[in-house]
Amino acid sequence: MMGFFARIFGRQEPPAESSEDAINKLKETEELLMKKQEFLERKIEKELAQAKKHGTENKRAALQALKRKKHFESQLNQLDNQILTIETQRQTLENASTNAEILKIMGLAAKSLKKAHKEMDVDEVHDLMEDIAEQQEVANEVAEAISSPGRFGSDVDEDDLMKELEEMEQEEVDKQLLKVPTYDENTLPKVPEGELADLEKELKELAVF
After folding, report:
1. What is its main location (predicted)?
2. What is the pTM (predicted TM-score) of this model?
Protein backbone atom coordinates (compact mmCIF):
# COMPACT_ATOMS: atom_id res chain seq x y z
CA MET A 1 0.00 0.00 0.00
CA MET A 2 2.79 2.42 0.89
CA GLY A 3 4.50 1.64 -2.39
CA PHE A 4 1.24 2.39 -4.23
CA PHE A 5 0.85 5.83 -2.66
CA ALA A 6 4.52 6.51 -3.18
CA ARG A 7 4.17 5.82 -6.90
CA ILE A 8 1.08 8.06 -7.13
CA PHE A 9 2.20 11.03 -5.08
CA GLY A 10 5.88 10.58 -5.64
CA ARG A 11 8.53 9.97 -3.05
CA GLN A 12 9.66 12.90 -1.01
CA GLU A 13 13.40 13.24 -1.26
CA PRO A 14 15.15 13.74 2.08
CA PRO A 15 16.66 17.19 2.52
CA ALA A 16 20.17 17.42 1.16
CA GLU A 17 22.93 17.57 3.72
CA SER A 18 25.28 20.47 3.84
CA SER A 19 28.74 20.07 2.36
CA GLU A 20 30.28 20.29 5.81
CA ASP A 21 28.09 17.46 7.17
CA ALA A 22 28.84 15.27 4.15
CA ILE A 23 32.58 15.90 4.49
CA ASN A 24 32.49 15.02 8.19
CA LYS A 25 30.65 11.75 7.49
CA LEU A 26 33.14 10.84 4.79
CA LYS A 27 35.99 11.51 7.22
CA GLU A 28 34.37 9.30 9.86
CA THR A 29 33.88 6.50 7.33
CA GLU A 30 37.46 6.86 6.15
CA GLU A 31 38.78 6.62 9.71
CA LEU A 32 36.64 3.53 10.36
CA LEU A 33 37.92 1.80 7.23
CA MET A 34 41.51 2.65 8.13
CA LYS A 35 41.06 1.02 11.53
CA LYS A 36 39.68 -2.07 9.79
CA GLN A 37 42.65 -1.92 7.45
CA GLU A 38 45.06 -2.04 10.38
CA PHE A 39 43.10 -4.98 11.84
CA LEU A 40 43.37 -6.96 8.59
CA GLU A 41 47.10 -6.22 8.32
CA ARG A 42 47.62 -7.66 11.81
CA LYS A 43 45.55 -10.75 10.88
CA ILE A 44 47.64 -11.28 7.75
CA GLU A 45 50.86 -11.05 9.76
CA LYS A 46 49.47 -13.52 12.29
CA GLU A 47 48.44 -16.09 9.66
CA LEU A 48 51.81 -15.75 7.94
CA ALA A 49 53.53 -16.43 11.25
CA GLN A 50 51.31 -19.52 11.76
CA ALA A 51 52.17 -20.84 8.30
CA LYS A 52 55.88 -20.41 8.97
CA LYS A 53 55.51 -22.01 12.39
CA HIS A 54 53.91 -25.20 11.09
CA GLY A 55 56.00 -25.32 7.92
CA THR A 56 56.56 -28.85 6.68
CA GLU A 57 55.75 -30.44 10.05
CA ASN A 58 52.02 -29.75 9.79
CA LYS A 59 51.24 -28.98 6.17
CA ARG A 60 47.49 -29.01 6.76
CA ALA A 61 47.69 -26.27 9.41
CA ALA A 62 50.17 -24.32 7.29
CA LEU A 63 47.88 -24.48 4.24
CA GLN A 64 44.88 -23.37 6.30
CA ALA A 65 46.86 -20.41 7.62
CA LEU A 66 47.89 -19.44 4.08
CA LYS A 67 44.27 -19.69 2.89
CA ARG A 68 43.12 -17.39 5.67
CA LYS A 69 45.99 -15.07 4.82
CA LYS A 70 44.87 -14.94 1.16
CA HIS A 71 41.30 -14.26 2.27
CA PHE A 72 42.39 -11.38 4.50
CA GLU A 73 44.60 -10.00 1.72
CA SER A 74 41.61 -10.02 -0.65
CA GLN A 75 39.55 -8.11 1.92
CA LEU A 76 42.43 -5.71 2.48
CA ASN A 77 42.70 -5.05 -1.25
CA GLN A 78 38.97 -4.26 -1.44
CA LEU A 79 39.31 -2.07 1.61
CA ASP A 80 42.19 -0.14 0.05
CA ASN A 81 40.05 0.60 -3.00
CA GLN A 82 37.15 1.72 -0.80
CA ILE A 83 39.39 4.06 1.18
CA LEU A 84 40.80 5.51 -2.03
CA THR A 85 37.28 6.09 -3.40
CA ILE A 86 36.06 7.76 -0.22
CA GLU A 87 39.22 9.87 0.05
CA THR A 88 38.82 11.03 -3.57
CA GLN A 89 35.15 11.85 -3.00
CA ARG A 90 35.96 13.75 0.19
CA GLN A 91 38.67 15.81 -1.53
CA THR A 92 36.35 16.55 -4.46
CA LEU A 93 33.62 17.68 -2.08
CA GLU A 94 36.07 19.82 -0.11
CA ASN A 95 37.26 21.48 -3.32
CA ALA A 96 33.67 22.07 -4.42
CA SER A 97 32.83 23.55 -1.03
CA THR A 98 35.88 25.81 -1.19
CA ASN A 99 34.99 26.94 -4.71
CA ALA A 100 31.41 27.63 -3.65
CA GLU A 101 32.64 29.73 -0.72
CA ILE A 102 35.00 31.64 -3.00
CA LEU A 103 32.21 32.32 -5.49
CA LYS A 104 29.97 33.47 -2.65
CA ILE A 105 32.60 35.91 -1.40
CA MET A 106 33.28 37.14 -4.94
CA GLY A 107 29.55 37.70 -5.43
CA LEU A 108 29.33 39.74 -2.23
CA ALA A 109 32.38 41.74 -3.27
CA ALA A 110 30.85 42.43 -6.70
CA LYS A 111 27.61 43.64 -5.10
CA SER A 112 29.51 45.89 -2.70
CA LEU A 113 31.58 47.29 -5.56
CA LYS A 114 28.46 47.91 -7.63
CA LYS A 115 26.82 49.70 -4.71
CA ALA A 116 29.92 51.83 -4.17
CA HIS A 117 30.01 52.81 -7.84
CA LYS A 118 26.34 53.79 -7.74
CA GLU A 119 27.20 56.39 -5.13
CA MET A 120 29.86 57.88 -7.41
CA ASP A 121 29.34 60.19 -10.37
CA VAL A 122 32.03 60.07 -13.03
CA ASP A 123 31.64 63.76 -13.89
CA GLU A 124 31.93 64.70 -10.23
CA VAL A 125 35.08 62.61 -9.93
CA HIS A 126 36.62 64.39 -12.94
CA ASP A 127 35.66 67.79 -11.50
CA LEU A 128 37.14 66.84 -8.16
CA MET A 129 40.41 65.74 -9.76
CA GLU A 130 40.60 69.00 -11.73
CA ASP A 131 40.04 70.99 -8.53
CA ILE A 132 42.76 69.03 -6.78
CA ALA A 133 45.18 69.62 -9.66
CA GLU A 134 44.35 73.34 -9.69
CA GLN A 135 44.85 73.70 -5.95
CA GLN A 136 48.11 71.78 -6.20
CA GLU A 137 49.32 74.20 -8.85
CA VAL A 138 48.39 77.16 -6.63
CA ALA A 139 50.22 75.56 -3.70
CA ASN A 140 53.34 75.10 -5.85
CA GLU A 141 53.25 78.74 -6.94
CA VAL A 142 52.88 79.91 -3.34
CA ALA A 143 55.77 77.70 -2.22
CA GLU A 144 57.96 78.96 -5.06
CA ALA A 145 57.13 82.58 -4.23
CA ILE A 146 57.96 82.10 -0.56
CA SER A 147 61.24 80.29 -1.20
CA SER A 148 62.54 82.66 -3.91
CA PRO A 149 65.54 84.60 -2.47
CA GLY A 150 65.66 87.26 -5.20
CA ARG A 151 62.37 88.91 -4.35
CA PHE A 152 63.63 90.68 -1.25
CA GLY A 153 65.80 93.76 -1.87
CA SER A 154 65.43 93.53 -5.65
CA ASP A 155 64.88 97.34 -5.88
CA VAL A 156 68.44 98.16 -4.65
CA ASP A 157 70.74 99.69 -7.29
CA GLU A 158 74.00 97.74 -7.57
CA ASP A 159 75.87 100.82 -8.89
CA ASP A 160 75.07 102.67 -5.68
CA LEU A 161 76.34 99.71 -3.69
CA MET A 162 79.62 99.66 -5.66
CA LYS A 163 80.07 103.40 -5.15
CA GLU A 164 79.52 103.03 -1.42
CA LEU A 165 82.02 100.18 -1.31
CA GLU A 166 84.68 102.28 -3.13
CA GLU A 167 84.16 105.14 -0.68
CA MET A 168 84.65 102.76 2.22
CA GLU A 169 87.89 101.48 0.66
CA GLN A 170 89.15 105.06 0.10
CA GLU A 171 88.42 105.94 3.71
CA GLU A 172 90.47 102.95 4.79
CA VAL A 173 93.40 104.07 2.56
CA ASP A 174 93.23 107.59 3.99
CA LYS A 175 93.38 106.21 7.50
CA GLN A 176 96.50 104.22 6.63
CA LEU A 177 98.17 107.34 5.16
CA LEU A 178 97.46 109.33 8.28
CA LYS A 179 99.40 106.75 10.25
CA VAL A 180 102.68 107.50 8.29
CA PRO A 181 105.18 109.19 10.74
CA THR A 182 106.34 112.84 10.07
CA TYR A 183 109.92 114.09 10.60
CA ASP A 184 111.19 117.46 11.81
CA GLU A 185 113.88 119.15 9.66
CA ASN A 186 116.04 119.64 12.71
CA THR A 187 115.99 115.91 13.41
CA LEU A 188 117.12 114.90 9.90
CA PRO A 189 120.86 114.13 9.55
CA LYS A 190 122.90 116.97 7.99
CA VAL A 191 124.92 116.38 4.84
CA PRO A 192 128.45 117.88 4.85
CA GLU A 193 128.80 121.03 2.69
CA GLY A 194 131.45 119.48 0.45
CA GLU A 195 129.33 116.46 -0.31
CA LEU A 196 126.30 118.66 -0.86
CA ALA A 197 128.21 120.72 -3.48
CA ASP A 198 129.30 117.56 -5.28
CA LEU A 199 125.70 116.28 -5.36
CA GLU A 200 124.42 119.55 -6.81
CA LYS A 201 127.13 119.42 -9.51
CA GLU A 202 126.14 115.86 -10.49
CA LEU A 203 122.51 116.87 -10.70
CA LYS A 204 123.36 119.75 -13.07
CA GLU A 205 125.38 117.44 -15.31
CA LEU A 206 122.52 114.98 -15.43
CA ALA A 207 120.15 117.79 -16.34
CA VAL A 208 122.33 118.66 -19.37
CA PHE A 209 121.93 115.16 -20.77
Report:
1. other
2. 0.47
